[in-house]
Amino acid sequence: MITIIKPGILTSIQDLGRYGFQKYGVIASGAMDQSAHRIANLLVGNEENAATLEITLLGPAIAFNEDALISICGGDLSATINGQAVRRWRPVFVRGGSTLKFGPGKAGCRAYIAVAGGFDVPVVMNSKSTYLRAEIGGFSGRALKEGDQIAWSSHGNLSGIMIKHLKSNLKDHFFMECDWSAAGDLIDYTSRRSIRVMEGRQFELFTKGSQEKFFSEPFTVTSESDRMGYRLKGPLLTMEKAEEMISEAVSFGTIQVPSEGNPIVLLADRQTTGGYPKIGQIAAVDLPYLAQAKPGDRVYFTKVTLDEAQSLYLEQETKIKQLKIGVSLKFR
Amino acid sequence: MEYGIHPLGDHAIIIELGKDIYEETQQKVQVVSAFLDEHPPCWMVEYIPAFTTVTVFYDPVYFTNINKAKLPYNQACGQLSEMLEGLKAGNEKEQRVVEIPVCYGGEFGPDLEHVATINGLTAEEVIKIHSSGDYLVYMIGFAPGFPYVGGMPENIAAPRRESPRLKIPARSVGIAGEQTGIYPIETPGGWQLIGRTPLELFQPQAEPPSLLRAGDKLRFRPISHKEYLEWENHKG
């Protein structure tokens, strides 16, 4: 079990999302950076969908009431265990009684903490993700608060082998981490500011000038950005003529442009449908990069075709599959 | 059935069944939705019906097991086209009629008088008109269980409030322009509130979690404050 000593700005339980109920207006939710969430789980021997803690910018302080196998993936939010820096993207064995804290954000916006077995909260509509506005799912349907205690489910064989291995090297330390990293070429938040985007359904309705600017000039993530969506500021995007749109489904990474001309990127907590013109759609492989951008960061959009976006996605999925096999081979 | 097919990014396909909000288009949306419920393709994650479209979400990885050379999008489109060719409008399921009891005015409907005044009516007339309309649920969206309802008589239309309320209580019935609707959960909003229903529109533990579904016919029935309280007590 863990106990939250300080909650941080926004710490919530998430998995890969709540699917099958969007037709009833129930939003998908789920981890903003799905790659980091999935890798964090694989590194502790979990299924990719197990519930993790998503922490945001100013992270929490968390006491471990018992021994645990964890991994921290995603942005670099200066994690320490009992004052000593702990590295991301690897399995870490934590001795019970230790405290995990986060400091200044060095790169990225969010990090994910996975624990072997996965955090144990009730499944609501097929998911453990927190749906903040409807106050369901996750831990009591809300962001974590001081004093909250969260247990985890029992772990599988692979996690057991990892624990045994790391524990045997623990000696008198508070934690023991593997000396290898899973990040490799899968993730690099600091160097990538160019996000690959497909043309949206209404792309052709925008002026030629707006179409060009969209794919060449930078956009800044404004402070009006959250799990629901990022409001961007850059060159104003205008349509040839104002057209009345009929609401239809939107998805993770849809870029809408309301009439005032500043784009909004829809993210994990987006509504199920939207009525603004869609200028673009972020390629699924690049969603984690945007989810790791924080207010003030600048992004560029680069055009890709649907064909390219799907090929990139399939390549990434192959890499994640290889990582899953790789993790188990390291502990053979 | 006539349709258009468009990608929504690399994980979804929009099936377009019409260009305008018509009841006939809505029926086509119902036919496609019902088919997807009864014969869900194994690669489908879920679908979202709207006024003129049904959007199907899929897992591109699934198709690589079938044909590595062909783009997953094209494979999914191929299967959807085959399905759509065989569908005919008119096969829709029997329409459900859902009655929504509403306690109009008073503390539950603080804007009822305003809606009456701007339309040159009395509050009683607004209630009568609102509760005698035949309504159709075009889609569910915006919030869990929130119905986009068509069919409200124009003579009780009212523009949104100039400054939205920070909190609209759950189950409030309101008017915005020529639309009427019910708020399933507490949200901020600019609708003119004319009453409240004791019915829960969103129940996370129920299957399905939404009281209403796209395609339902809606009727509003006025109830007294006393009846409202009895409903509430009955819910326990």
UniProtKB/TrEMBL annotation, chain A:
Q: Which GO terms describe its molecular function?
A: ATP binding; hydrolase activity; transferase activity
Where does the Carboxyltransferase domain lie? 23-319
**InterPro entries, per this entry?**
CT_A_B, Cyclophilin-like_dom_sf, PxpC
The membrane-spanning stretches of this chain are none
Entry keyword set:
ATP-binding, Hydrolase, Nucleotide-binding, Transferase
- SUPFAM superfamilies this protein is in? Cyclophilin-like (SSF50891)
Q: In the UniProt record, does the keyword Hydrolase occur? A: yes
SMART domains for the chain:
AHS2
- Keyword set includes Cell cycle: no
* Pfam families for the chain: CT_A_B (PF02626)
Q: Which Gene3D superfamilies match?
A: Cyclophilin-like
The name this protein carries in UniProt is Biotin-dependent carboxyltransferase family protein
Which organism is the protein's source? Peribacillus glennii
UniProtKB/TrEMBL annotation, chain B:
What GO molecular-function term can you cite, just one? 5-oxoprolinase (ATP-hydrolyzing) activity
Q: What domain of life does the native source organism fall in?
A: Bacteria
Matching Pfam families: CT_C_D
Q: Where is the Carboxyltransferase domain?
A: 3-212
EC number(s) stated in the UniProt entry for this protein: 3.5.2.9
Task: Identify the keywords attached in UniProt to this record, alphabetized.
Answer: ATP-binding, Hydrolase, Nucleotide-binding
Q: Identify the InterPro entries for this entry.
A: CT_C_D, Cyclophilin-like_dom_sf, PxpB
- Show the NCBIfam families listed in the entry: 5-oxoprolinase subunit PxpB
PANTHER family of this UniProt entry?
5-OXOPROLINASE SUBUNIT B
Protein name, as recorded: 5-oxoprolinase subunit PxpB
Which organism is this entry from? Peribacillus glennii
Lineage, top ranks: Bacteria, Bacillati, Bacillota, Bacilli, Bacillales
